[in-house]
Amino acid sequence: MPYINLKVAGRLTRSQKETIAKEFAETLERVASKPKNATYLVIDEVDRENWAIGEKLLG
Question: Has domain 3-57 been given CATH number 3.30.429.10?
Fold first, then answer.
């Protein structure tokens, strides 16, 4: 059972999330022979003000 935890800065639309889930599941099925219904994906949307690169906040 693959488990993916994806963190992104900012917000995604529902459509974007659906596409990401589909692409990850298809990739794991094709590359690792894992059935799509066994793939778990959690998308964490992090406010840009809570994400920094070096000492600079993104938001």
Answer: yes
Rg of the Cα atoms in the chain: 14
* Cα 36 from Cα 49, distance rounded (Å): 34
Query: Tokens standing for 29?
Result: 């099925």
Q: Are 20 and 43 in contact (CB under 8 A)?
A: yes
The residue whose two tokens read 């793939």 is 39
What is the pTM assigned to this prediction? 0.88
| Residue corresponding to tokens 């993916």 | 4
Using alpha carbons, select from 47, 50, 51, 49 the residue that is nearest to residue 59: 49
> What's the mean pLDDT in 6-33?
98
